[in-house]
UniProtKB/TrEMBL annotation:
GTP binds at G169, L170, D171, N172, A173, G174, K175, S176, G219. The keyword Acyltransferase does not apply. Mg(2+) binds at S176, T197. Keywords: GTP-binding, Magnesium, Membrane, Metal-binding, Nucleotide-binding, Transmembrane, Transmembrane helix. It comes from the Eukaryota. The keyword Cell inner membrane does not apply. SMART domains: ARF. GO terms for biological process: non-motile cilium assembly. This is Small GTP-binding protein domain. Its main location: membrane. It is a multi-pass membrane protein.
């Protein structure tokens, strides 16, 4: 079994930029509408002393705070730079509080206030998620990890990861049975219904939070020319011993005969039929992928 990292192309995100520009343009309108709503309420309704002026100040302050946030977001996106995105993330922490204030906590809340700030909050939330995804891509691409990158790296960890696995080995070795075992139960082909693979078979599923694309190659001599040796970035030997059968050789003995001494720490007895040992095998493989990142 060999593994390969999927390259992540890093470019500024167009949808994120469109959203940022849209909010930059409409923000002054929203602030003016907010002040208009406050003036209307102040004219009609009695405010507790001081509350009216506090709300006016917050409405005015929303303009520079949100504008700075959007400008740093645009700078980080367009320059493909992480530090401005970190400032964007920090300023984004204020957005839900300001929106919540005008949607629920100010003295008088009109339906108009709720709608206006709910739309603004929803757009900011979508934009925040896009920025997290983009930052993760930048981190994947950059070899050096400074202080700022380390902060956003932890945010990037929540992104789903992807990897391609190439499964090769002798025919009838149990490759397809192992691959099926790793799939979710609902889409798994029962072990006694798995035919010998013709050519190769591609499966896509998620395991240990990693989206895997598995190329299950036939081991038959006539198809071995198809094995794309050059496509692999690394090789993870995976010695599969049918320990569910009586009289089978212990895994350590099989590894010794195959000269896999260097991989002793990774040999364990497993069965594709019972699943014994397979979870540890996949956990080790995923760990290698994380290390390779
Ligand atoms: N007892 C036992 N039988 C197994 C195990 N793994 C696979 N088999 C059986 O071995 C046979 C071959 O399994 P496959 O998964 O089709 O083998 P393969 O390596 O994909 O073979 P090709 O596609 O021809 O390269 C099937 O009858 C499986 O049920 C195992 O762990 N224990
Ligand atoms: Mg097969």
């Amino acid at each position: 079994m060999s593994f390969q990292r999927k390259p992540s192309p890093v470019q500024p995100s167009l949808p994120l930029q469109m959203l940022l520009s849209f909010q930059e343009t409409t923000l002054p309108l929203m602030v003016v509408a907010n002040l208009g709503s406050l003036a209307y309420k102040g004219w009609l309704l009695p405010y507790p002393s001081g509350a009216f002026y506090v709300e006016i100040v917050l409405a005015v302050l929303q303009l520079p705070i949100e504008l700075l946030r959007l400008l740093f977001g645009s700078k980080g996106n367009l320059l493909e730079s992480i530090p401005p995105l970190v400032v964007y993330f920090v300023l984004s922490l204020l957005t839900p509080f300001l929106s919540a204030f005008f949607m629920a906590w100010q003295t008088y809340v009109l339906a108009f206030d709720q709608w206006m700030h709910a739309v603004f909050l929803a757009l900011s939330g979508a934009q925040f998620l896009m920025a997290v995804n983009l930052t993760g891509n930048f981190i994947d691409e950059g070899p050096e990890m400074g202080f700022m990158s380390a902060i956003t790296a932890s945010i990037g960890q929540f992104r789903s990861r992807q990897a391609s696995l190439l499964v090769v080995g002798l025919d009838n070795a149990g490759k397809s049975t192992i691959v099926q075992y790793y799939k979710p139960e609902s889409s798994r082909v029962p072990a006694d219904h798995i035919p010998p693979t013709v050519g190769f078979h591609i499966d896509r599923f998620t395991r240990n939070h990693v989206q895997l694309t598995v190329f299950d190659m036939s081991g038959s001599a006539r198809y071995r020319d198809l094995w794309p040796y050059n496509a692999a970035e690394g090789v993870a030997p995976f010695c599969h011993a049918d320990c569910d059968l009586a009289g089978t050789m212990p895994a350590a003995e099989v590894a010794a005969i195959l000269g896999l001494d260097a991989f002793k720490d990774r040999s364990c007895e497993c069965s594709a039929l019972t699943g014994q040992g397979l979870s540890q095998g996949m956990a080790w493989l995923i760990e290698q992928l994380s290390v390779a990142r």
